[in-house]
Amino acid sequence: MFWDKVSFIYDFVETVYNKDVYNNTGKMVASYIECTDVVLECACGTGAISKHIATKCNRLTATDYANGMLRQARKNLKGFHNISIEQANLMSLEYEDESFDKVVAGNVIHLLQEPDKALKELERVVKSGGKIIIPTYINREKKNSLVAAKVFELFGADFKRQFDMNSYRKFFERNGYLDVDYTVVEGKMPCCIAVITK
After folding, report:
1. Torsion of CA 175, 122, 189, 1, to 10 degrees
2. In angstroms, rounded to a whole number, what is the distance separating the alpha carbons of residues 173 and 91?
3. 198 falls in which pLDDT band (50, 70, 90)?
4. What pLDDT, on a 0 to 100 scale, did the predictor assign at position 10?
5. Shortest CA distance to 184 belongs to which of 21, 15, 11?
6. Domain named Methyltransferase type: which ranges (predicted)?
7. Fewer beta carbons below 10 Å: N end or C end of the chain?
8. Are 101 and 127 spatial neighbours (Cβ–Cβ below 8 Å)?
9. Cα angle 81-129-125, degrees, rounded to a multiple of 5
10. How far apart are the first and last CA of the chain?
């Protein structure tokens, strides 16, 4: 699996290519988290967003499908005592309905064959009144974004879609989410954080 193969250099590559966005996305996501929150994070990767969430929340369950990413996350997050790191499939989560105050799925929607199903799973496990927080890289400059995507694809990444701001909004609208807050973290490849209140 691609994500297992690149897990040991993922933080380095992201920092070199897109440092401001890589560092600031987690900070922005954490601004939606409260100290009493029990949070689920799907596709946690190496824990870049997780470390920011953990400083704010009561408890965090950080999950990923790739074993390599989970190994890196355990290394990067070993100083935190309020995190449980688990393997999970975003498309079929083994958590009870309405188990979490907030759910986060960072930079994964564009990789999924059926992202609409993932949204429904996130909605299922978040409590009524809770928030679904979905940061996703978006394209602002076509040339820059296409070059970056091609490089990742050469190494085996499988992007199912690429979003710009307009198509990202339309994606949520098509899935029935009309009241979504959007915040963009600017950088070489910006990240748009979509926030849905259930």
Report:
1. -110
2. 20
3. very high
4. 60
5. 21
6. 40-134
7. N
8. yes
9. 60
10. 33
| Contact present, 104 and 49 (Cβ < 8 Å) | yes
Domains belonging to the chain, first-starting first, are 2-197 (3.40.50.150)
Which residues neighbour 185 within 8 Å (Cβ) at sequence distance 6 or greater?
A: 20, 21, 24, 25, 28, 135, 191, 192, 193
Burial class (CB in 10 A: 0-12, 13-18, 19+), 84: exposed
CA separation for the pair 149, 188 (Å, rounded): 13
Task: Give exposure, 177-196, as e/b (b: 16+ Cβ within 10 Å).
Answer: beebeeebbebebbbbbbbb
Give the three-class secondary structure for 69. helix
Q: Could you tell me the pTM of the whole model?
A: 0.87
Beta-carbon contacts of 137 under 8 Å, excluding residues fewer than 6 positions away, are 21, 107, 110, 163, 189, 190, 191, 192
d(CA 192, CA 175): 17
Tokens standing for residue 60:
């965090």
Note whether 61 and 70 are within 8 A (CB).
no
Tokens of 62: 């950080």
